[in-house]
Amino acid sequence: MKKILTLGMVLLVGVVLAACGSSSAENGSNDTVTIGYFPNINHVAGMVAEEKNLYSETLPDGTEVKYQYFPDGSAFMTALETGDIEAGLVGPGPAMNHFTSGAKVSVVAAGSTGGTVIMARPDAGIESPEDLAGKTFISPRVGCTHDVQFEALMKGEYGMTSDRVGGEMKHVTGKPATYSSMFKTGNVDAATVPEPWASFIEEQGTGEVLIDTPDVAYGETLPAAVFVTSNELIENDPELVQSIVDAHKKATEFIQNNPDESKTIAIDKIKEITDQELSREVIDRAWERITFTYEVNGEVLQDFANSSHDLGFLDEKPDLTNLVDKSFIE
């Protein structure tokens, strides 16, 4: 409970500060730039950029840089649309869903790929994916990135769906940090788990890998995190957007060239934000399932969106033609 309350308090402070300040859209200036991200390992570029003060290196002199942390993609996208943040890292699912709902946002880079693992409780009687019929699985949110990856695999390869559409698997939702304890108490049988929580579960011995990252739908090609900003900012101040993306690129290159220091930053930052301390062994194992890159593949995002529609998470088949703007990374 302490961990959840600590994160909640941090998020509440972030919301209060955002509400008390004036955004660049409101005051017509860009004296303050706020970057958002999640406290998880797919968003290490955000942690590195904050720790190394990289945005101050690329933004105009005198620009104040702030950071806001989010519990889920919906909250992040809402903050982006209302101007509480200028840019940041979010899962592809929320970015895609808000775009198809009419949000004027653009994916201008990727943050990472990979990192989704399907795990099973050791005593749940699950030896293969076929054994998931009648079992309860958990994902962070209905229709989130990891949920779609799991359900697309199960429907496409095994002809199995969740009870959301009258299928054989029971679906519940919850925070990934709680999955280990839920396995231990027997509340769930399987989980679609983002890193580093899959590696944490492995370390705790409360769950076993059923389907590893390469075999999950879009496992190694789908961006696990994308870097997004508003179309309004792109239209009004493309130079500022370029400066923001340049800092994100610097952070990504730092991770690629300095993995050990980047791991330490991730461990310290996750502990600072969530009060959850992860071991170096957990981070080392999780790192092997993730590729940190700012290159973004729009075709993979479209394929993923098609899967989300096929699964019934989207009412209409989406057209993501204008979602990705690669001009800032080329």
Automatic annotation (TrEMBL):
It comes from Piscibacillus salipiscarius. Belongs to the bacterial solute-binding protein SsuA/TauA family. Gene3D superfamilies: Periplasmic binding protein-like II (3.40.190.10). SUPFAM superfamilies: Periplasmic binding protein-like II. InterPro entries: ABC_SsuA_sub-bd (IPR010067), NrtA/CpmA_ABC-bd_dom (IPR044527). It holds the Pfam family NMT1_2. Residues 1-18 form the signal peptide. It comes from the Bacteria. This is ABC transporter substrate-binding protein. Keywords: Cell inner membrane, Cell membrane, Membrane, Signal, Transport. It is found in: Cell inner membrane; Periplasm.
